[in-house]
Structures are given as structure tokens and as C-alpha cells.
Amino acid sequence: MGTNMAAHVSKAVLLLGQINQAGLGFQRSVKGATYATGVVTKTKRRNEDRGKDPVRRDKRVSITPRSESMPLDLDWTAVYPAAASFKPNTVPLPVRMGFPVKGGVPPDKKGNLELIKIPNFLHLTPTAIKKHCEALKPFCTEWPSALDTDAKCDQFFPIKVESTDYVSASLSVRNPAARVVHLKVKMSSLNLDDHARKKMIKLVGDRYCKETDVITIKTDHCPLRQQNKDYAMYLLTVLYHESWKTEAWEAEKTRADMEEYSWDGSRSQKNLLQLLGRGGGGGEEELLGRSDVQEYKESVTRLKNHGESESTVDQYKDAVKKLLQL
Amino acid sequence: MAAPMMIRRELSSLARIFRGISRLEPRAGVTCSGHRTWNTTRFRLPPTSITSFHSATASSSTPSSITVTEEPDVLLQRLSLLVKGHDRAVLDSYEFFVTMAARELGMAVSDVSEPKKDMERLTLLKSVHIFKKHRVQYEMRTHYRRIQLTHLTGSTAQVFLEYVQRNLPEGVAMEVTKTTMEKVPDHILEPMSDEAPPSQ
Question: Which of A59, A121, A325, B114 is the 20 to 30 A CA-CA neighbour of A306?
Fold first, then answer.
């Protein structure tokens, strides 16, 4: 046993300073032993002897963790200035995380992989956010105070251009969906007369929403967003100028192409004139000038354009009653 | 996406990256005379310390200067951030960070909502060979958070987005939808004078 100890101690020269008083006497005799032999042989220690060696020490010396000596007014932004993984000896919180052992509690923070895996926001405490924003403030500009409501924004800046940016961690920074541009304009903000308005609605087709009076032009033909935006503006320009022009073939517009129902020249008018003409021989214009005929005209137009509802049907009923003097 | 190490360097890197950052005069100068010009820049700083875009030197000792340009600022009616992640708690913390940063920078947060989570499920065979009746099922959950800000200028949005995107946690993706407002361009204000129709 003595020679075994000798071999180990001769190897562990570095630990001489930490050997306690009890071992010193041991060592003196041991030193003599190594000098005498001159050759160091590593011998296997039996399991029972492992715990009994007072000389053997752990190479790693554990110190008290930093979290135990942190003052209360510590500047936390200096401890975690940037995103970093969770360090249990640096964070002075008694955090537990993980699935609890049966009948026990979630595991402690020391050596807890769950706490290391999850992204932490220790570098973004409210104090840190305030500091960052103070530094960023000079780069920001103020919103013009005159444009406080959405209505004013729509009045002065009617064209809205929408585009999307994508941020994600992957092999590539680019996302092909980022080139899509939506251009939205309210038709009422464009300078259009009646004919131009109707023609524009026909040209644009599905892109016009009747409830909100908004034209939406979506462009994704070009590979870059700026190109798509320019193309959308070009389309708007073309639509605008084309709708103001009157082509020769527009004269062939039939009743079926009309957007709204108009009573003059319709079958309803012909029927009415036929009906009233049978009674007395009044001229057409005279008949049309009558107030009850005008009421009937209004009620039919309203019924056709705005659909059937209680008020429109009642109005029609009253007009017919008056006309037929019931 | 790791945040930069020191705040000072972040400032100078921001200054490098932000071309054409415009700066407001004191409030008196902002009132608009006509609604045509929304120029927010009226003065130039002396060109002694203007940082150029492509310079790679990181001078953390000198204070970064703000480059002022004459081009008018873009106006954003709405900025919508949609954040996606697999962990709801991470998105909660991120939402707190984003809303606080927006409030500190003086931006109006109009809406913070949580769209319904998506679950993508897979049913696979448990064994490598045969045993068709024994399967294993996996699912991937994607949680969302939508934060909408209104009435921002282009430079404010740029600053805010860079700050917020640099601090995006791992495993979280973001979609930013910008709605910019523009005036009706001059060539659409009036119809063209009568011309011969184009020959077909």
C-alpha cells in the first residue's frame, strides 16, 4: 500500500501545496521512496481504496457562484448585455424547469438543459429596453401632426401600396413572396366623370369592391418589388387614361351592358303607356308628365337597382295603387 | 439572430446602415403650409463626420452622427408584424418587448391579437418494415402573434424594425406588412387632351 501511495503522490506534484498536515509526514517518507526507485509505475488502485486517499483532490476547485454575491443595485444590463444562454451561476433566480420526478418537483437550475435550450430574454429587461430606445430616439422622425385621422390620410394620400417582408432563419435570406405588391385606391379620390367611372369598373372587373369603392391591383409578374410597384402605377395610369377615352364601338352598348336600370325606354314604360293609352287618348309626353307616373317610375327604378326590401316594395305598391286609382 | 455586443457599436452600425436618415427640426418647423410638401429635413449637418454606407471601420469611441438628406420621408399608414413560433411563452415575452419598445419610441400600437394556432399532423409507420397497423403520430404547432402599429414615418419604421428584428429569438419567424401612403401622381390628376385613338 505504501508503494501505491508513493506512485500517485509522485505524479501529483502540483498538489503539494494543498496537502493537509496529516499527509505531510506521509509525504516525506514517500519522497524518499521515489528518489530511491527512480522509476514511476502506475499501479491500479482497488475500489476500496478510492475514498480513503486524503491526498487526492479534485482538479477543479468550485468557487461560490457569482449569483450569491450580487448586490441589489447591480447593473443587470452589464451582466447580460446581449443575447446569451442561461448561466445558472450568473442568474440569481431560484428557477426550476422540467418535468417533475414522481412525487417531486421540477429539477433545479444547476445543469438544467431545458433552461439552456429555451430562448431567454434576460438581455431585454425593461431597463435595457429603455436604454436602447434612448439611444435610438435620435434616429426616429415624428409623424406629421396634421394627419391625425385616417380620413385626412385618405384625403391627401389616397393611394396605398402594401408589401410584405419575411424574416426567418434558413439557408437563404430571400423569400420570393416578398416581391408581391398590392396597390389600393378609392375610386372616389380619382378625377373621373360618369362615363369614365363606369368604363373603369368594367375594365378592372373583379379588382373593384363595390362596398368599399376600392380598386386593388396585385402585381407579382416582375422579380423585384420595385419593378412590381412601378408596374402597378403604370397599370393605374393606363386604366385612368383609357377610361376617359370614348371608343367608336362604345356606341353599341346595349341594355344588357348597362350597370344601372333606367326606366326610360324600358318595357315597363311601354307597358304603362299602352295601359294608360287605352283609357283616354292623352299624348305620350302628357302621360309621362303626370306625378303618379313619375312616382311609379321612381318606385320601379328603386326596386330594380336596390333590390327587394320592405320599403321598396311598399313604395311600389303605393305607386301602383295611385296609378290605377284603387 | 444575435444582438450586437455593445450599445455604442449598435448606434454606429445603425448609422452606417440607415441611408438617408432624416431628422426633424424643432417642432415649430413641422407645421405644414401646404399638403404638398412633407419634407422633414431642412438643414444639413457639417460633413466632417458623416459615416458612409460602405465603410467597415467600427469606431466605438467617436459618437455616431446622423445623416440628414433632402428626400421626403415615406409615410406608413400601418405596420403589421406577424410573429410565428413553436412556443407560446417565447411569443408572450417577445410581444412584451415589442410593445414596450414601440411605446418608448413614441409609436401608436393599435392592435395586439393572437391568431389561432396551426397544427400540422403526420401519421407515419412505426416500424421500418411491415406492421401497417402500428403507426406513430407527430404534430407541429405554430403559434402566432399579430402586432399592428399605425402612423409611422419611414425612418422610424426602419429604426424600430432593425431593433426588433435583431432581437428576434431563435426559432421565431416574422412577416412585416407595410402599407405606405402616396399622393395621386401628377399624370393621373387630369385626363389627357383629345388624341387620336391608338391604332390596333
Answer: A325
